[in-house]
Amino acid sequence: MPRSAPLPDDPVIEVRGLRMTYGSTEVLAGVDLTVAPGEVVCLLGPNGAGKTTTIEVLEGFRLRSGGDVRVLGVDPAEGGDDWRARVGVVLQSWRDHARWTPRRLLTQLGGYYEPYSTPQRPRPYPVEDLLETVGLTDAADRRIVTLSGGMRRRLDVAVGIIGRPDLLFLDEPTAGFDPQARRDFHDLVHRLSDLEGTSILLTTHDLAEAERLADRILILAGGRIVADGSADELTRRVAGSSEVRWSIGGERFVHATADPTPFVRRLFEQHGDAVADLEVHRASLEDTYIAMVGRQGAGAEAPRPLAGSVR
Prior knowledge:
This protein is of the alpha/beta class. It has helices spanning 51-59, 81-84, 102-111, 127-133, 149-161, 179-196, 207-213, 231-239, 260-271, 285-297; strands spanning 13-22, 25-35, 40-44, 66-71, 87-90, 167-171, 199-203, 216-221, 224-229, 242-248, 251-257, 275-281. The strands form three sheets. Strands 5-6-7-3-8-9 form a six-stranded mixed β-sheet, sandwiched between helices. It has a three-stranded antiparallel β-sheet with strand order 2-1-4, with helices on one face. This is ABC-2 type transport system ATP-binding protein.
């Protein structure tokens, strides 16, 4: 029996028991994940964990071995042109049409989305606005082959969002970006999510970027999602405590506590101005990630995923 049309607050991505095997090798052993409308979710994992395979299944580019997958209410393996028009993909690099210019390429690609425009979501993104958004206005009429690596990466992003997608997949989106371009891109991601309601699933090896962009972080290891939560939730779950460091009269002290604020308050109540060199050290997302992946690699029982926060 066909599934009814998804409601506006239905998950944009809903995956249950996703499995993928290549010959006798099981890459995905039962992946469960959801992405809510307007949510930015980051998928982390070591090389070979199955991130790319998972993303390709969700994009409809790879057939799964088992499990149930719904993206925008449709099985990606059966998605038609109208479904694909709602999905944006930023690949590692756009290498075709080297003799074209960014303006010509985006104008050509934008034409494919016009039949799928709606009053709620007009398509395509106006080319001049898009060129300005990704910082390519000054290079709009240069041949693509002459663009720098950073400029070509900006063009990759523009190609991915020209159709004003409901759902955007970003694979290592800021690889090759300089610090200013990376900051501009982060602003763009927030704008797409906050103002246009675009749901975003991204992969990155930059943990600081994941912490800055993502509402929720998923960690994929051992063929399963072993952690699901905000950066703060995951850090608290793994670390369990913070370190408070201080000195009194030149003597150094260190104390571990699950709640540093009341501890620091009591410290000053007891010692007052004698407290010097005060530091509160919380575990970073990098600490958390290494601990969780290392635990999975050592064969420890996978931690139960946290309930994800939804905007």
